[in-house]
């Protein structure tokens, strides 16, 4: 007798397979991918096309590298960026150690003092240094009172002020990158080294520092890449000899006859930036761009490969470090026992003071009764607050920024949260590559992105429109949302969602009743930071706004370039208060993301 085996599983008809595919979380990636493809990748591709549209494909690039003005500016940009990255590393490492060694309220205050300036607009932080280093600023007054200067010195518009301003702006990025690496250290390794007879400096050189090299490398590269596209700080703090490459792009944008050559300038800057990131990704893994943490499972193979590659290449460097390090360690062994602790405390204190002091000075000046910038103020007054709130142009710019930032945050949160759900909850391959695409706008120089969008916006008549500006700002807000919401989603146990689905709940019901309440703090924090990103955005607005649509950063930019008065300090103070409120809102999700990183 023949036995027939029956499959108890129901047959998977084409309709069932289609239904399962529709429910696949990977589909949630499509809206963000479509948005970035149209408003981000397509303009960059078109920018590259125009740059090679001359009589020969290389004619514009030959001009870039043959004209001394541009070639020297490019070299100067790389030199300044490298110097700033070195200064940030020198000051950032002891500051990260200071945060790590502190406890309780002290640690929270130091960390807040580092994080707070990071979320304040670059324009406002640069303005704060202009106030601090001005002829009537506190630095000149202090030096004159101490007899160091016979009269107020010219501390602005030179290479030193550019390096100081850029270092202060980018230092939080370095500190946070190194601290993320220091916080993961196993304390038992240091205790074992001390038990074996190694002194504090030897423990640092032979144990702590090598283990934190990935964080050091990530911080150094992020600072260097970000500095390549700077033009706000060098423009306001530097002189004619301190022009960086991005400044030429904004200057050439005013000339209609520069099409082609203008795009070639942008492509050169973009290619250099991508080349540096590509080389860095080869050794560190591209997860350094978004801080690792999220997509930990997807990133592990790349991180392991990067670590193996690093270890395989470290033997010559390790031999050089031993040759240099051991004689230095013998000399350092003669230093007092607490020398390292005091060094970390002093340098960390200087960094905290350098980041917070300019902001405090600006806030005090906002209450000045004087008609010009001076510190300390001759008397306390609210006249500049009254002037700000009664000036129609300032208030119009404020409401424009508020509306644009709200629309931009809605776009970024809708697309970013959907993409985060798709990348965390799906089983799609190549998650690291997808995440790299989603966060890549943070590494593209803003001037390059602004120029590429200008051509697209002209074609669709979006220049000077609120929705166009909001969509452009959302390009930078979307990576913020993806990283924060993805971190929040990783803290949610998928089994809770599966249990709800097993009991018959639809995907929408599961999301509304299980997932959304769990990630609500993350969504709130992501919404605020996406809003703040748009509210502070200047570079894209310079390219895409019009005379009839002025935002608050554009008003600040115009006034800083032509006149300095305490109204600017009022705007800065109001933004600082806004950022403080946002950080307080974001604390729960930031703490949670550190826990799952």
Please describe the structure with a list of short key phrases separated by commas or semicolons.
597 residues, mainly alpha, 26 helices, 75% helix, globular, disordered N terminus
Description:
- The chain is mainly α and 597 residues long.
- Helix content is 75%, strand content 0%.
- Helix 17 crosses helix 26 and helix 21 crosses helix 23.
- The longest helix has 37 residues.
- The N terminus and C terminus are likely disordered.
Quick gist of this model?
With 597 residues, the chain is mainly alpha-helical.
Q: Largest sheet at a glance?
A: none
Mean pLDDT comes to 82
Backbone structural class: mainly alpha
As a percent range, the share of strand residues is under 5%
What is the alpha-carbon Rg in Å?
Answer: 26 Å
What is the approximate shape?
globular
Helix proportion range: over 70%
Low-confidence stretches: 1-9, 14-22, 293-315, 593-597
- Total of DSSP H or I helical runs spanning 4+ residues: 26
| Helix-strand topology string | HHHHHHHHHHHHHHHHHHHHHHHHHH
Strands, total number:
0
Q: Ends: how far apart? A: 61 Å
